Amino acid sequence: MNIFELHEGMPRQGPGLNEVTGEAFGVVEEELKDGAIILDIGCGSGMQTLELARLSERIGATVVGMDVHEAFLRDVLRRKAEQGVGDRLGIVRGSMTAMPFLDGSVDLIWSEGAIFIAGFEHGLRSWRPLLKENGMMVISELNWLTDERPEEVLEFWKPMGIEVDTVEKNLEIVINAGYDLLGSFPLENKGWWQDYYTPMEKRMKELKEIHAGDPDSMPLIEGMLKEIELFRRYGGSYGYQFYIIQKTSN
């Protein structure tokens, strides 16, 4: 079992909430025109991708979900058929570090809980050329929300190379990377539990019984359960922040 397989079949592969996707989309909607291209980078199994497709129907935009893991993309197509989402939703298999899109071809880049793979600053800078003039991004990133820095959380993140900044620091990075800020707000606690940690915790407990004694699978399962427990205890000190930004003209 690998980290991708651990997340297969889950509603989401990271924290998020359809209502929050809608709130963020409302900020950028008036700037989008008929025929706009929306690229969802690291779309996973596509809960927010399908929500974007539904929201975009009223403005005639096309949504493209991109992920490197084929099983996630199959989930997007299955859910698209089940939910009756229109034909303005497509998928592309690709890596966020080598994306198969032309510069200046995208009106809006969307990425919920995935930019950390590329790195916040690197993602902002390397994805910027894909945007059309005055193109926009909506991204969510893990941030410290208080001055508390629980040592147990830091020790858990350290082997994974996870470095978390404050919202203030990331706002500086946004400006320095060539964007204007249109809006920013935190993901509410419900967005961690409803479609992510609650179903994930249930599945990990089931997998723990199935894979008991498996030296390859158990560390991943135990690590996920530990992550969930840490958020249950310390989640008030960190969380996801949405950044709604627009490419500057210079």
Throw out a few tags for this protein.
250 residues; 41% helix; globular; Rossmann fold; single chain; 8-stranded mixed sheet; alpha/beta
Description:
The structure is a single chain. Strands 1, 2, 3, 4, 5, 6, 7 and 8 form an eight-stranded mixed β-sheet that branches. The relative contact order is 0.17. The protein has helices spanning 3-7, 18-28, 47-56, 70-83, 120-127, 151-157, 167-176, 190-210, 218-234, and strands at residues 37-41, 62-67, 89-93, 106-112, 131-144, 165-166, 179-186, 238-247. The mean pLDDT is 95. The protein is of the alpha/beta class and 250 residues long. The chain has a single domain, classed as Rossmann fold. Strand 5 (131-144), helix 6 and strand 6 form a beta-alpha-beta unit. The N and C termini lie far apart (46 Å). The protein is 41% helix and 23% strand.
